[in-house]
Amino acid sequence: xxxxxxxxxxxxxxxxxxxxxxxxxxxxxxxxxxxxxxxxxxxxxxxxxxxxxxxxxxxxxxxxxxxxxxxxxxxxxxxxxxxxxxxxxxxxxxxxxxxxxxxxxxxxxxxxxxxxxxxxxxxxxxxxxxxxxxxxxxxxxxxxxxxxxxxxxxxxxxxxxxxxxxxxxxxxxxxxxxxxxxxxxxxxxxxxxxxxxxxxxxxxxxxxxxxxxxxxxxxxxxxxxxxxxxxxxxxxxxxxxxxxxxxxxxxxxxxxxxxxxxxxxxxxxxxxxxxxxxxxxxxxxxxxxxxxxxxxxxxxxxxxxxxxxxxxxxxxxxxxxxxxxxxxxxxxxxxxxxxxxxxxxxxxxxxxxxxxxxxxxxxxxxxxxxxxxxxxxx
Length: 378
Hints:
This protein starts with a helix and ends in a 7-residue tail after the last strand. It has helices at residues 2-20, 25-30, 32-35, 38-46, 54-63, 66-77, 82-109, 111-119, 130-150, 154-174, 177-198, 201-221, 223-241, 248-265, 276-288, 300-320, 322-326, 332-347, 354-369, and strands at residues 80-81, 370-371. The chain has 19 helices and 2 strands. The longest helix is centred in the first third of the chain and has 28 residues, at 82-109. The protein is 77% helix and 1% strand. It has one domain (2-235, 297-371).
């Protein structure tokens, strides 16, 4: 479905280009918020020179294909009107709301088994990978609060605010730390934006104090959240004792240490993105011994540095952040999207997965292309 959706966007762009638009390669290349994103694809494509395993390299190239086609498509389709922008976000919020009913119902009907799994480091079952789902949930949650602030209709302001509160609580219920961190970061930026633009300083202070107490309240009132925190503390303790070879947090910390070692060995051009898997497996065996599953560095910055070195990483991240660096107008949605990307990269190799890569790129380009008028009437 993700692939079909991207293909349809490209088809729309082709239809528009045939009807009323003359695409110029030179003008596109000069428009860095769009053309800069092609550098992300270019770096991964060129990393094949340094990769012995062409199959693994091609897999990474396929995942990054959206960075080649979607920037061109959105460049042609721009500007996106705010009505379309709103409709897309409301649709996303609606899908998340419906899915939350299914997830919570499943938890209630299978409470014992799921609770037991949480105590062993597993997560509450979600429609897609729980980390990807939590990231999308976090974006939908923050979008509720932003559009609540922007809406002219009091009815919609209240509805969106209440839905945002519900989804914020749902984030704590799922207790996926990546999603929670992004949700708090996004809400924090939204609050700062709201306080500065509306000059509601007292409201901002009181709300900030309330938000800071929520994790402590959740720890004592939300059982899945409590169990997750307890397991995390136990997991880290196992890592410190040298017994964490097959536990989630310990695996992350081990992957960081291995990544640092590999970066030191090839700091300039990296090891080649196609060759990371066997090298990581070998390093892990040498340093920590055998295990069931060997994982990539759970940090996008370390992953890219390990794969393409400092030179490749500079080009890769410059291209990725071109939309926020060079945007003519930076609206709050674009800022939130990049804040979430920056934070997610610290704990996940986020854009090494097809679904979440497409999600982030879609909303980067949508929020970059929107003709955003705050005072527009519904």
